[in-house]
Amino acid sequence: MKRSKVRKALLNKLDCAEREGTEHTKYRFIESDKCIAVTALPRDKEIRDKLFGRIARQLFISFPQFRGIVVCTYERDDYIQMLKKSQLLLERAPGNVRDFVASL
Prior knowledge:
Blueprint: H1 3-13, E1 17-20, E2 24-31, E3 34-42, H2 49-58, H3 63-70, H4 76-85, H5 87-90, H6 95-102
Antiparallel strand pairs: 1-2, 2-3
């Protein structure tokens, strides 16, 4: 998948904050003034499935769910609902993510 398409999804669909680094661009999903998830994109033009899956895990969702966000099936509100429903994935999430989902 093209990096530009993944970048657009992170910025426009999830409304992530973007910060340029020397080797990667970092994206933070912030809700209620709390950083819920952080991921990074390399400078490569193509994002392969292995990296795509790693980004999905960093966002605490599955590969197909993240693909749905990128191909315009899901929006920010859908992502928040995915976090709420995904108790299995949240077991390994940091405390701030669990607290955020519990507050929904």
